[in-house]
Amino acid sequence: TMNSDGSDQLPLTDSLGSGGSYDRPAWSPDGTRIAMEAAVGGMMSEIYIIDVQTRALVNVTAANSRDNNRISHESPAWLADGERIALVRNDDFAIIRVDDSELVKVNRGQ
């Protein structure tokens, strides 16, 4: 975060180290959280949410990737209700609830 003039810059997240990056940030509708894609050390991307005030970082797609490093979650976009995020999951669309990580696949052509 920073002041509107660019001063007092304060990173919200720690570095992911070598081979890691945060990408495609998306602000929640109420401006209190940011969803972002993160990949660490060659692993597939996951979706994380950071609380802007507390800097608490939560991986909301971890339960949907457990024991399968071939599932990639990318391109988060908040829905207007601020409780769900649309994302791309291995070239398909899905919606995930941020409070309990329930993921619903959206079939193409619906």
Output the radius of gyration: 14 Å
Write out the strand line-up for the largest beta sheet, numbering strands in chain order.
1-2-3-4
| Total number of helices | 0
Given as residue ranges, the uncertain stretches (5+ residues, pLDDT < 50) are none
H/E order of the elements?
EEEEEEEE
Proportion of residues in extended strands: 35-45%
Walk me through the structure:
The chain is mostly beta strands. The protein is built from no helices and 8 strands. It has a 4-stranded antiparallel β-sheet, with no helix packed on it. A 4-stranded antiparallel β-sheet has the order 5-6-7-8, with no helix packed on it. It is globular and about 45 Å long.
What's the gist of this structure?
By secondary structure, this protein is mostly beta strands. The chain is built from no helices and 8 strands.
Task: Name the descriptors.
110 residues, mainly beta, 8 strands, 0% helix
List the helices and strands and how they pair.
Layout: E1 21-27, E2 33-39, E3 46-51, E4 57-59, E5 73-78, E6 84-89, E7 92-97, E8 103-106
